Write a sequence for this structure.
C-alpha cells in the first residue's frame, strides 16, 4: 500500500526526507516521560493509512479498491483527517484530485508513521517467533567452559536468528547481574551466595587439591597442614566459587601459605605443570593431566559442589524462557 508511493517524485522525496530528519531530531531531544510529553490527537491510524494510500495514487477510487473499502468510506476518512489537522490535504482539479502543498508534507509524515508501524509489527513478530533478537546470559568459568556448551548448542540450533551474548565472571558477579536485570539467567559454580534467585542444580562438580607428582607434599595419606604452609598456593580471585571451597578444604593453610595469584584456570594449570606449587582445581579442568600422570591429587578429601542454573523469579523474555528450559532441563 504505502510502498506504491513514487519516492522518485522530487517534491515527495524532499518532503519525506525532511519529515524523517525532523522526526530523528525530535527523538534525540524528546522527554523521557513520553506519556506526558506527547499530545493527544483525534485522528486515527486508519485515517493515516487511508490518506497514504490516496496520496500514493492521487485517486480515491483506486485507493478504495486497494484498501477493500467503499469510495464513500475513504472520502469520509480523508475528511475526518483534514478536520482533525485543520488543513486541506487534497484539492479537486476537474475530475481529478491533487495533493495540496500541505498535503504533500503531511503525506510524507504519514508515510514515516506507516513505515514505523510496519517495523514495529516486524520486531514483535520476529521476537515472538524467535526469528531474531538477542539474549544475554552469564557463566562462571568452570560452568561456562565445561557445562554450558552442549545446552547452548541445542538453543542456537533451534533458534539461529537469536544472538546470544555470554558474560563471564565469578558466581557472585553473575548472580548480582541477574538480580539487577542485566542478564536473563546464568550457569554458575557452587557454592552460591545468599540470594533470592531461582536455582536448579544441573550437574555436580568436584574440587580437588593437586600438584606435580614430584612435589614434596605429595604422597602422604594424611597431609600435615605445616607442609602446606611451606609450599606455594596457586590462587585465583578470592571471590571465585572454587576458592571459597578451597578455603574450606585447606583451613588455616589457605591463609598462611605463600600465595601466587592468577586470573584463570588455564594460568593456574600451567603453573601447576611447571611445579610452582599446589592448587584447588575443578576435577574436569585437570582430568586429562591426572590420567596422563602430569598432575596428582594431594591427600585431602575432594569436595563436591553443584553447578546451578539461576534466574530471577517471575516471567522472562520469550527467548529467555525457552533458553531457561534448555539450561535447567525443565
Amino acid at each position: 500500500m504505502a510502498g506504491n508511493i513514487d519516492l522518485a517524485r522530487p517534491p515527495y522525496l524532499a518532503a519525506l526526507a525532511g519529515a524523517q530528519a525532523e522526526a530523528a531530531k525530535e527523538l534525540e531531544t524528546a522527554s523521557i516521560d513520553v506519556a506526558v510529553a506527547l499530545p493527544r490527537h483525534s485522528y486515527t491510524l486508519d485515517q493515516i493509512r487511508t490518506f497514504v494510500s490516496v496520496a500514493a495514487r492521487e485517486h480515491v477510487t483506486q485507493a478504495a479498491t486497494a484498501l477493500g473499502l467503499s469510495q464513500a468510506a475513504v472520502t469520509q476518512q480523508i475528511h475526518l483527517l483534514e478536520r482533525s489537522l485543520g488543513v486541506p490535504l487534497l484539492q479537486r482539479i476537474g475530475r481529478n484530485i491533487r495533493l495540496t502543498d500541505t498535503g504533500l508534507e503531511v503525506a510524507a509524515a504519514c508515510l514515516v508513521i506507516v513505515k514505523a508501524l510496519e517495523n514495529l509489527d516486524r520486531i514483535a513478530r520476529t521476537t515472538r517467533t524467535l526469528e531474531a533478537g538477542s539474549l544475554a546470559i552469564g557463566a562462571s568459568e568452570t560452568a561456562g567452559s565445561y557445562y554450558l556448551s552442549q545446552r547452548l548448542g541445542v538453543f542456537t540450533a533451534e533458534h539461529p536468528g537469536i544472538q546470544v551474548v555470554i558474560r563471564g565472571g565469578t558466581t557472585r558477579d553473575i548472580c548480582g547481574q541477574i538480580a539487577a536485570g542485566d542478564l536473563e539467567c546464568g550457569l554458575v559454580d557452587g557454592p552460591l551466595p545468599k540470594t533470592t534467585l531461582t536455582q536448579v542444580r544441573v550437574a555436580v562438580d568436584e574440587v580437588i587439591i593437586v600438584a606435580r607428582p614430584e612435589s614434596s607434599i605429595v604422597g602422604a595419606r594424611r597431609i600435615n597442614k605445616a607442609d602446606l604452609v611451606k609450599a606455594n598456593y596457586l590462587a585465583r580471585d578470592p571471590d571465585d566459587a572454587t576458592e571459597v571451597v578451597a578455603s574450606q578444604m585447606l583451613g588455616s593453610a589457605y591463609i598462611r601459605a605463600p600465595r601466587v595469584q592468577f586470573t584463570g584456570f588455564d594460568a593456574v594449570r600451567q603453573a601447576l605443570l611447571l611445579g610452582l606449587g599446589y592448587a584447588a582445581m575443578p576435577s574436569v579442568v585437570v582430568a586429562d593431566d591426572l590420567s596422563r600422570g602430569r598432575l596428582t591429587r594431594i591427600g585431602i578429601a575432594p569436595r563436591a559442589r553443584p553447578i546451578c542454573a539461576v534466574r530471577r523469579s517471575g516471567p522472562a523474555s520469550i527467548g529467555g524462557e525457552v533458553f531457561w528450559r534448555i539450561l535447567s532441563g525443565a
Q: What stands out?
A: DSSP finds 15 helices and eleven strands in the chain. The two ends are 45 Å apart (CA to CA). The domain at 203-306 is CATH 3.40.190.10 (D-Maltodextrin-Binding Protein; domain 2). The chain has three domains: 2-127, 133-202+307-328, 203-306.
